[in-house]
């Protein structure tokens, strides 16, 4: 690369195909939530998203390996990843905001408290309490009970916090040219991510079969699955990304001074970890 110029990728079909795949996935999720019959559409959308990610990231990796990127492109990638994580923060902030609004305003109003306590006239026998096991409308059944935060949720919290530590060790190993150290600790991080996903699946099974926590179980069930479900999707994506980084480490793709692909994966994983800590506190504990 000569003074002031930087690599401009050729026109790509991946952005439009990725948008279409995400659109199909969202339509499928909407059909599933509203009508309960969008499973096939969700599957098609998910396969499409994974296919586009694989092929698009493959192009980026090949361009990087060919030495086509310079400092300007590195800054562009960093800004892009930074704004992406910011958008993810706002995404989860919306759901945490919904949880806060329901707990601090909507439920107390229905119980006769606050400036809009007159809404208690709708269900005069309703007693405001969170978690909402007994919704005011008798046609809606709340969960039978809730999880203890000190069992599976605590185990998953310890797993994710530990995974951030192992990933940090792997990153430092790469920067210090200890490639085997990086590979081994990164493999441990991927394993911890898989364990987290497995435990989350066990928790969902328990929720539906023994606790009565479903998407139909009032506002608590809806918020629980929306927050933990979207976070679980992020963990699955993050684990896949880290697994790809592990393959690339094995193929000796990264250098100690030039490894933003690995660094971006670390940013994403640490973000997922922080979100879970917020979930653990505000969904399970408080």
Automatic annotation (TrEMBL):
It comes from the Bacteria. Residues 2-286 form the Heme-copper oxidase subunit III family profile domain. Its EC number is 7.1.1.9. The chain crosses the membrane at residues 12-34, 40-58, 79-102, 150-170, 182-199, 219-247, 267-285. Keywords: Membrane, Translocase, Transmembrane, Transmembrane helix. The keyword Transmembrane applies. The keyword Membrane applies. Its main location: membrane. It is a multi-pass membrane protein. CDD domains: Cyt_c_Oxidase_III (cd01665). Gene3D superfamilies: 1.10.287.70, Cytochrome c oxidase, subunit III, four-helix bundle. PROSITE patterns: COX3. It is found in: Cell membrane; Membrane. It holds the Pfam family COX3. Coiled coil: none annotated. Belongs to the cytochrome c oxidase subunit 3 family. This is cytochrome-c oxidase. It comes from Vreelandella vilamensis. The lineage of its organism: Bacteria, Pseudomonadati, Pseudomonadota, Gammaproteobacteria, Oceanospirillales.
């Amino acid at each position: 690369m000569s003074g002031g110029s930087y690599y401009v990728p050729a026109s790509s079909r991946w952005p439009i195909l990725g948008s279409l795949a995400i659109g199909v996935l969202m339509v499928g999720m909407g059909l599933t939530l509203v009508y309960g019959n969008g499973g096939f559409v969700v599957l098609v959308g998910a396969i499409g998203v994974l296919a586009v990610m694989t092929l698009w990231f493959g192009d980026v990796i090949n361009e990087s390996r060919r030495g086509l990127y310079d400092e300007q492109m590195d800054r562009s990638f960093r800004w892009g990843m930074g704004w992406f994580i910011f958008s993810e923060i706002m995404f989860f902030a919306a759901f945490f905001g919904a949880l806060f609004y329901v707990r601090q305003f909507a439920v107390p109003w229905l119980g006769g408290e606050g400036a809009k306590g007159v809404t208690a006239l709708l269900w005069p026998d309703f007693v405001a309490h969170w978690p909402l096991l007994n919704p005011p409308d008798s046609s809606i059944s709340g969960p039978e009970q809730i999880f203890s935060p000190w069992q599976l949720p605590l185990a998953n919290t310890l797993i994710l916090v530990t995974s951030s530590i192992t990933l940090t060790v792997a990153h430092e190993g790469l920067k210090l040219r200890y490639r085997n150290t990086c590979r081994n600790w990164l493999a441990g991080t991927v394993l911890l991510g898989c364990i987290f996903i497995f435990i989350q699946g066990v928790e969902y099974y328990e929720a539906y079969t023994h606790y009565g926590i479903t998407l139909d179980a009032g506002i608590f069930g809806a918020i629980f699955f929306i927050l933990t479900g979207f976070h679980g999707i992020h963990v699955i994506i993050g684990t896949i990304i880290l697994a790809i980084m592990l393959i690339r480490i094995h193929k000796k793709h990264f250098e100690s001074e030039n490894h933003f692909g690995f660094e971006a994966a670390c940013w994403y994983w640490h973000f997922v970890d922080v979100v879970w800590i917020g979930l653990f506190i505000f969904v399970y504990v408080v």
